[in-house]
Amino acid sequence: MRQCADGARGDDTTRLKVVVASWLMQQTPHPTPIIHGQNKLGCGFNNDATGWLICPVDYDWNDPVVQQNIRDYHPDYRVTAHSWPSFLYKDETYDPLKPTDGLFKGQFLLKTFKYIFTSPTSAEMDEQEQLSPEVLSMQGRPKQRRTDGEHRTHSNVAGLLNMKSVQPRSIAYAAVQLRFALSSTGSWHIVDDEFNHQEFYDNIVDFLELAVTSDAAKEVEDLLLWWNQ
Known about the structure:
Elements: H1 2-25, H2 48-54, H3 64-71, H4 107-117, H5 120-124, H6 127-131, H7 133-139, H8 142-147, H9 157-160, H10 168-182, E1 191-192, E2 195-196, H11 197-209, H12 214-228
Antiparallel strand pairs: 1-2
Helix pairs in contact: 1-4, 1-10, 4-10, 10-11
């Protein structure tokens, strides 16, 4: 089973390396330097777009001095799994006075989750097309419309795993895959420089499963409700 799990993770890693590069290249302005799906040397902190997304929210990526200090491994600008990267937040926007606002609602995180667990097509659909009750009632679910009358040759991953709802560990898995796809590391390693992917996964799971106050538990409940919508 471990071998099968490692194989599935490897497949996800290989495919996401290409598709995440494609998503980024669709942005305006284009990333600098240009991102190539098969070569990650120009990703990570070597690139404006990917560097901004994986920059810890404790630092201001828009400050050239901060960028250079991160690239130079300055001890005061360490990049570890103990600070949330910007891509976890909606619109990559972090408010230090409200540190959980928009957390785990990042656009690329959501797209990555859909790409892995529902289908590559669902990751490309417009959000309103997916969530609008009016669209669903009049036309059916987008995926159903595309496959009506066609022979289905396989089920999506969520179906194969009998996933009935979004769980914290699946969100954490998608976050780890996205973080690796945005990095400049060419092959999978648990530890990338000072960033530990296992610790990153564990920190997300702990945040979502081990809320220490009733208010925090309610925030997680609302967050999972948002994901399941």
